[in-house]
Amino acid sequence: MKEMEFRTASAARGGLLFMKGVPGVALGDRAAVRDHRGRLRNGLVIRSSNDLVLVEVFEGTDGLDLERTWVRFLEEPFELPLSRELLGRVFNGVGRPLDGRPPLLSPLKRPVNGAPVNPAARAYPREFIQTGISAIDGMNSLVRGQKLPVFSGSGLPHNRLAAQIVRQARLPGEEGRFAVVFAAMGVSHSDARFFQEDFESSGVLGQVVMFVNLADDPPIERLILPRTALTAAEYLAYDLDLHVLVVMTDMTNYAEALREVATAKGDVPSRKGYPGYLYSDLAEVYERAGRIRERRGSVTMIPVVSMPSDDITHPIPDLTGYITEGQVVLARDLNARHVYPPVAVLPSLSRLMKDGIGRNYTRDDHPRVASQLFASYARALEVRNLAAIIGAEELTEGDRRYLAFADAFENRFVSQGETEDRTIFETLSIAWEVLSLLPAEELIRVSEEEIAGHHRFQPLSGEVHAA
Amino acid sequence: MGEILEINGPILTVRLPQVVIGEQVRVGSLALVGEVIGREDDRATVQVYEATEGLRPGEQAEALGHPLSVELGPGLLGGIFDGVQRPLDAIQKASGDRMARGLALPALDRARKWRFEPAPDLHIGARVHGGMALGSVQETASITHKILVPPNLRGKLVDLAPAGEYTVEQAIARIQDRHGPVAKLALFHRWPVRTPRPFRRRDPADEPLITGQRVLDTFFPLVKGGKAAVPGPFGAGKTVIQHQIARWCDARIVIYVGCGERGNELVDVLESMPKLTDPHTGRPLMERTLIVANTSNMPVVAREASVYVGITIAEYFRDQGLDVVIVADSTSRWAEALREVAGRLRQMPVEEGYPAYLASHLASFYERAGRVETLSGDTGSVTLIGSVSPPGGDFSEPVTSHTKEIIQTFWALSKQLADARHYPAVDWTESFSGYVAASARWWETNVDKSWAARRAEALALLSQAEELARIVNLVGMEALSAAQRWTLEGASLIREGVLQQSALDEVDSYCSPGKQFLLLDLALFIYHEGMTLLDSGVPVQQLLGLPLLSKARRYKSRYRSEEMEALKACRDEIRGTFDRIRTEYTKPVERAR
Ligand SMILES: Nc1ncnc2c1ncn2[C@@H]1O[C@H](COP(=O)(O)OP(=O)(O)OP(=O)(O)O)[C@@H](O)[C@H]1O
Ligand SMILES: [Mg+2]
Question: Residue A351 CA: which ligand is closest?
Answer without folding.
Answer: 1
